[in-house]
Specification:
- The complex is a heterodimer.
- Chain A is an alpha/beta fold.
- Helix content of chain A is 26%, strand content 28%.
- Chain A has helices at 18-34, 75-89, 100-112, 218-226, 235-239, 270-276, 305-322; strands spanning 5-8, 11-12, 15-16, 38-44, 61-66, 93-97, 117-121, 123-127, 130-137, 142-148, 153-157, 172-175, 186-192, 204-208, 230-233, 260-264, 281-286, 299-302.
- Chain A has a 7-stranded parallel sheet, with helices on both faces.
- In chain A, a hairpin with a 2-residue loop joins strand 2 and strand 3.
- In chain A, helix 2 crosses helix 3 (100-112) and helix 4 (218-226) packs parallel to helix 7.
- By secondary structure, chain B is of the alpha/beta class.
- Chain B is built from 8 helices and 13 strands.
- Chain B has helices at 37-53, 67-77, 88-91, 95-105, 128-135, 189-195, 212-215, 242-255; strands spanning 2-6, 9-11, 33-35, 56-62, 81-85, 113-117, 140-150, 153-160, 163-170, 173-177, 200-203, 220-226, 235-236.
- Chain B has a 9-stranded mixed sheet with strand order 9-8-7-10-6-1-4-5-11, sandwiched between helices. In chain B, strands 2-3 form a two-stranded antiparallel sheet.
- Chain B is globular.
- Classes of the chains: A alpha/beta, B alpha/beta.
- At the A-B interface, helix 2, helix 3, strand 7, strand 9 and strand 10 of A face helix 4, helix 5, strand 7, strand 8 and strand 9 of B.
- Bound molecules: flavin-adenine dinucleotide and adenosine monophosphate (AMP).
- Adenosine monophosphate is lined by residues 6-8, 36, 38-39, 60-63, 95, 98, 116-117, 119-120, 123, 125-129 of chain B.
């Protein structure tokens, strides 16, 4: 009998991140194959009203640490608290989302707990009670199966790679009063563009490249907005100063796996593909019929994006109005 | 200011990556090796900090003999000295093992600041820098796009989903780099000439005072490597007019792909 799967949830401004639901769902699936409980950890300050939500995704127990010192994610405070819980619960598995917070926390925890870590996993299997994590390497050019030895086995799941499945758990809440211990980091300030859809979590991503010809991205912004999506960019568009570095998709930018990725005026260099080739459906609009992006796209239009994107936007509006 | 930069040599991002006959490693014959792009930002930032605060920039890399080239390139960019930890036992390590080795290599070196890449673009692990900070019991700040040092403190702006967070830590500290931090300089010709005379020490594990048993067995093991399913070039939408093409695309996205 395994000692349980602990899912570390992540909330921002009182809402759980989408990847948290993915981690919880995947954690539940693993707990079932291992024949153990799913325990969710909720950390933060003033989080009472969301604390029971993990129960909807099968959490049998929810450990809540509500502490002023946890109001913002801080590597040291969070590591201390999670490590304390791990020592108490002795879980077989720790699962969390590979967000910017999750990557940082899982790496520090792996060192603290001397535990194996599978970062940015896209698939997890349980074979004979052992976890095998599939994860991309070399910018997605290779997919590896990774065996984890030791305890707890830490798996950080790539946003948008796992499906969200609701199920019911007992959801018994246990409030813990844990001292956050010695901390060195000081929080100064935070700036969030809350109106913006996060690139790595978006269901639809519309990216513009050098073919945009300038900083005016309004045609693709309107298109993305209609679909509730996010706007990305190729490195060329970022290097030109047309878009912020945080919009860059690719090997040295963000990795996205939306349901729909639309590449506008992007040639499809290998470093760009590294950031979006796991998208479910890829559409390319490019003037050049020979552009390499067409060999990766499910659907392509050869033509001027400034002509086609507004037309496509209009057609979708019509479709939405009709349905 | 004593600045350490962690540097890994990785395949150039345009390299074709093949799978070796053992099925668990890559073919290394035709690869062009370069400095990990995120470590290039680290070198550049270290040089900028040195020009403002003085001090030295030391490059540390654990890797095979060929990594000397990457260290030389960093020296040519302007770093002061390099250390390569080369040992057959290091080749088998996972991220935790490498972090332990790097921690040992720093035992007798004074440092105020360590800069690492957020990830090496070969294993894409996002682990070594942060794990090293833990082993050294110093604070770490990930994904930094701006930093400022004064009065023995570092203030960093890091990226998070949908925005940025500003954090502060006392030195010594470690931070990892994010795109947007700087534009790395190229090595100049005089820089390349000078680099040839800069100190570059090659050390074994016993030289840095750690033995394989202290590193422990790797806790992760690659069972198999495969190529991701090849994406087939799909369908080019054709039609009589641009409007009919746009309408047809929307139609297939709705009915066939079911993504609208
Ligand atoms: C170490 C390293 C890391 C890198 N990391 C990244 C990364 O993370 N992300 C990334 O994207 N790149 C990255 N690159 C850069 C990459 O190699 C390419 O240079 C870049 O992706 C090209 O961007 P692009 O497709 O926008 O521009 P281009 O290659 O110039 O393509 C522009 C395309 O737009 C088309 N076009 C022009 N006008 C129109 C129009 N009006 N309508 C429709 N189509 C039009 C053209 O036909 C062309 O195909 C990296 C490179 C290196 C060396
Ligand atoms: N073998 C190594 N030698 C020196 N630094 C390394 C090594 N491996 C990783 N690093 C550093 O740790 C960062 C993250 O690497 P990784 O955890 O492998 O993705 C890199 O960008 C380097 O700065």
């Amino acid at each position: 009998m395994s000692n349980g799967v602990i899912a570390i949830t992540e909330q921002s401004e009182g809402f759980f991140r989408k990847v948290t639901y993915e981690a919880l769902s995947e954690g539940k699936r693993m707990a079932e194959s291992l024949g153990c409980d799913l325990i969710a950890i909720v950390l933060g300050s003033g989080i009472e009203n969301i604390s029971d939500e993990p129960c909807k995704y099968g959490a049998d127990k929810i450990i809540v640490v509500d502490n002023q010192a946890l109001s913002e994610y801080m590597t040291d405070a969070y590591t201390n608290v999670v490590a304390d819980i791990v020592n108490k619960e002795d879980p077989s598995v720790l699962i969390l989302g590979a967000s910017s917070q999750g990557k940082d926390l899982s790496a520090r925890l792996s060192a603290r707990l001397n535990a194996p870590l599978a970062m940015d996993c896209v698939e997890i299997r349980v074979e004979n009670g052992n976890i095998i994590a599939a994860r991309p390497m070399y910018g997605g050019k290779i997919l590896v199966d990774l065996a984890l030895e030791g305890k707890p086995q830490i798996v950080a799941v790539r946003p948008n790679a796992m499906s969200v499945v609701e199920s019911s758990g007992a959801g018994e809440i246990e409030k813990l009063d844990i001292d956050v211990g010695k901390t060195d980091l000081i929080f100064v300030e935070k700036q969030l563009d809350t109106g913006k859809v996060e690139l790595t979590e978006a269901d639809v991503v519309v990216s513009g490249g050098r073919g945009m010809g300038g900083a005016d991205f309004s045609v693709i912004e309107k298109f993305a907005e209609l679909l509730g999506g996010a706007v990305g960019a190729s490195r060329s568009a970022v290097d030109e100063g047309w878009r912020a570095a945080s919009d860059q998709v690719g090997q040295t930018g963000k990795v996205v796996s939306p349901n729909l990725y639309v590449a506008c005026g992007i040639s499809g260099a290998i470093q760009h593909l590294a950031g979006m080739s796991t998208s479910k459906v890829i559409v390319a609009v490019n003037k050049d019929a020979e552009a390499p992006i067409f060999s990766k796209a499910d659907y392509g239009i050869v033509g001027d994006l400034f002509e086609y994107i507004p037309l496509i936007t209009e057609e979708i509006k019509k479709l939405k109005a009709g349905s | 200011m004593e600045i350490i930069v962690l540097l890994k040599q990785v395949p150039a991002t345009e390299s074709f990556i093949g799978i070796a006959d053992d099925g668990v490693s890559i073919k290394t014959e035709d690869i062009k090796w370069v400095i990990n792009p995120y470590d290039e930002y680290a070198v550049e930032e270290a040089l900028r900090i040195r020009s403002e605060h003085g001090g030295t920039v030391t490059i540390i890399s654990a890797g095979p003999e060929r990594s000397v080239e990457a260290i030389r390139t960093a020296l040519a960019m302007g770093a002061d000295k390099g250390i390569l930890i080369k040992d057959p036992a290091a080749d088998k390590c996972d991220g935790i093992g490498i972090a332990r080795i790097l921690a040992a290599s720093l035992k007798n070196i004074k440092f105020d600041l360590i800069i690492a890449g957020q990830r090496a673009v070969d294993d894409d692990n996002f682990q070594v820098g942060t794990a090293l900070a833990e082993f050294l019991s110093i604070p770490n700040i990930s994904l930094v796009i701006k930093e400022e040092i004064s009065d023995g403190k570092i203030r960093c702006c890091r990226t998070v989903e949908g925005g940025t967070v500003v954090l502060e830590a006392l030195l010594p500290a470690l931070f990892t780099t994010q795109k947007g931090l700087n534009e790395p300089r190229y090595a100049s010709l005089p820089g390349i000439m000078k680099a040839k005379r800069k100190p570059l020490d090659i050390k074994s594990l016993s030289d840095i005072g750690i033995d394989a048993s202290e590193i422990g067995k790797p806790r992760t093991k690659i069972l198999a490597m495969k190529f991701p399913p090849e994406r087939e070039g799909g369908r080019i939408i054709k039609g009589d007019s641009s409007r009919s093409i746009a309408a047809e695309l929307v139609n297939v996205l709705y009915k066939e792909a079911k993504v609208l």
